[in-house]
Structures are given as structure tokens and as C-alpha cells.
Amino acid sequence: MELELPNKAYMLPEAIPNWPPVWWFWLILLFILGTALYVTYRIGKRYKKRGYRRQAIHILKTEFKQKNSAAKVILCHELIKRSLLSAGRPELASLAMTELIPHLDKTQKKHTFLALGDFFVLAPYAPKIDITENQLSSLYTTTMHWIRTHHD
Questions:
Q1: How many angstroms separate the CA atoms of 81 and 56, rounded?
Q2: Backbone dihedral region of 68: left (phi > 0), alpha (psi from -120 to 50 degrees) or beta?
Q3: Which residue ranges run through the membrane (predicted)?
Q4: What is the pLDDT along the chain (152 residues), one digit of tens a residue?
Q5: Is the dihedral of CA 135, 141, 143, 70 positive or negative?
Q6: How far apart are CA 109 and CA 129, in angstroms?
Q7: Distance between CA atoms of residues 120 and 117, nearest Å
């Protein structure tokens, strides 16, 4: 049974259905999906590229406590040079530590290798050098900070 209204001229038209969407909806959806895939790809590529940092930090955390004073400095030297090689900077990794320190400190503001003093450069060559716990703590912090924040 149909409802009879007195004046059908004032009736509203039927609602427009929500589906199928307009033709350009598919273009916007394709753009959003493509952007999401591209961002995911770049994040994955960056994560893989920076794997050497995670490995160097793990080595520093595990092996630093187990070594003696001179060996701790040598470990930090090795990790810095390995990080430079992995980052694609073999020209810097081949420099002597005295020449390398200004390059390492270019991007560092708070923790600098120059502030560590002469023991950082001399310890690998003078195994009887006296290094305090405070200096070793500063060395650990500076090396950890540099590995985390250096630019590729």
C-alpha cells in the first residue's frame, strides 16, 4: 500500500548512493597507496643501511666493560673506523687519528673527541698510559654519541 501525499511536487529526490564513487576517487586512492609503499620502502632501506650502527653500539656495550684501559681506547678507534668504512667514507677511515679528530667533531657539539685529551690518541701506542675512570666514561659516552649521530 502506497502512501498518498497531497502534493508530490514538494517531495525531495532520492538520495545519491555512496557507491560507486566518482571516477577520480581511484586516482586519489592509488596516490595514497603509492605514497605509503614508497615511504615504507625508504624506511626499510634506511633501517638496513644503518644496521652497522646498531652492530657497533652492541659491540661497544658488550665489549667495553670487559677490556683494560688501553684496549678500550683501541676498541673505540676500531669502531669509529669500521663505522666510517660502512658509511662509505674510506678516505676518512684511512686517516691517522690526529687528522681524523677534526672531521669527527664537525657535526658534534656536546661530546667531542678533541675534549677527551691526548690519551685518546696516545693510548694505542703507549700501553702503560694512565687513564682515569672519568676519562674512560667520557670516552664511552663520546664514542656512543658519535656512532648514533654521525652523518653518512
A1: 11
A2: beta
A3: 23-44
A4: 666 666 666 667 778 788 888 889 999 999 999 999 999 999 999 999 999 999 999 999 999 999 888 889 999 999 999 999 999 999 999 999 989 999 998 888 888 888 888 888 888 888 677 888 999 999 999 999 999 998 76
A5: positive
A6: 28
A7: 6
* CB environment 78-106: b (16+ within 10 A), e (fewer): ebbbbbbebbebeebbebebeebbeebbe
Query: CA nearest 116: which of 96, 94, 98?
Result: 98
Q: Can you give the pTM of this predicted structure?
A: 0.76
Residue 4 CB-half CA count within 13 A: 2
- Write down the residue that cell numbers 646498531 correspond to: 54
